[in-house]
Amino acid sequence: MRADAEPQLPPWCRAIRADNPGPMTLEGTNTYIVRTAAGNVVIDPGPLLEEHLRAVAAEGPVAMALLTHHHDDHSGGAQRFHELTGAPVVARDPALCRGGASLPPDGQRLDVAGRDLRVVDTPGHTRDSICVIADDGAVLFSGDTVLGRGTTVVMHPDGDLGDYLASLATLREQAAPGCLLLPGHGPRRADAAAVITGYIEHRARRLDEVRAALAAGARTARDVVEIVYADVDRSLWPAAEQTVQAALEHLSGRGDATARRRA
After folding, report:
1. Residue 70 phi/psi, 5° resolution?
2. Separation of alpha carbons 92 and 145, rounded Å
3. Has residue 134 been placed in a domain?
4. What is the bridge-based pairing of β-strands 13-17 and 89-90?
5. What are the φ/ψ torsions at residue 215 (nearest 5 degrees)?
6. Whole-angstrom Cα distance, residue 165 to residue 94?
7. What predicted TM-score, i.e. pTM, was given to this entire model?
8. Mean pLDDT of 151-156
9. Is the peptide bond before 177 cis (omega within 30 degrees of 0)?
10. Mean pLDDT of 46-56
């Protein structure tokens, strides 16, 4: 396999990418279709794009659709997908569930025959973010908690950096050696634990950069963004500002002296 080639999907899984590329969605939202004896489990039907939803529905009978979180690029098409297939929709937020079904508690398996799919609560990107671990840690469906390229925005105030760091640690512990990472956006990756370790190290560096910016006189999240994210496309600064605000809240909550003085 070439160094830049994506690893193959398991034979029981198919991916269809929605045609919604953008700065936050990268090439588009990845919808995953997991074959089970009970029918397909669809992870993130995606945005409200009729052609995409019909293509996913055409893959065969659907046992359920599962939402990794509430953002529209993952859940916007859920109601329409429910109408197209009659399949229940499950999510951590009960308001997103359809068809009388609910998501099992953290750590519990989905009620589908013939496939080991376990739900892991991973708040941080949003309060309701979840991931799915398949085949005893061999495959991780990571939603927006871990992307295939770049890093994830912690969507303050809905998201929380402390929760996010704890979620990353949980996923790293539960990923088996060589775990295949299947993200909500971007390419699939061959070693989920290595990608997650890179995420943890990146967040530690960013927190150090935020502390340094505060020590240099920054007083607001925008001030910090102008220093820390000076080399980042300005179209991404609003998202960066949310993440910096989450970092400020995190540092203040942990009793970081510089953050208390400046935030």
Report:
1. -85, -10
2. 14
3. yes
4. unpaired
5. -65, -30
6. 25
7. 0.92
8. 91
9. no
10. 98
Token digits for 170?
A: 């949980």
How far, in Å, CA of 96 to CA of 105, rounded? 16
Q: Give the per-residue pLDDT at 259.
A: 39
The pLDDT assigned to 4 comes to 61
Domain containing residue 80 = 13-193
The pLDDT assigned to 261 comes to 35
List all residues 6 or more positions away from 34 whose beta carbon is below 8 Å from its beta carbon: 12, 13, 40, 41, 42, 43, 115, 117, 134
Pairing of strands 40-43, 139-143: unpaired
| Within a domain: 144 | yes
**Single-letter code of the amino acid located at 176:** A
Structural domain count of the chain? 1
Euclidean distance between CA atoms 203 and 207, whole angstroms: 6
Average confidence (pLDDT) over 110-120: 94
Share of the chain above pLDDT 70, in %: 95
Q: Count of residues for the chain?
A: 263
Mean predicted confidence (pLDDT) in 13-27: 96
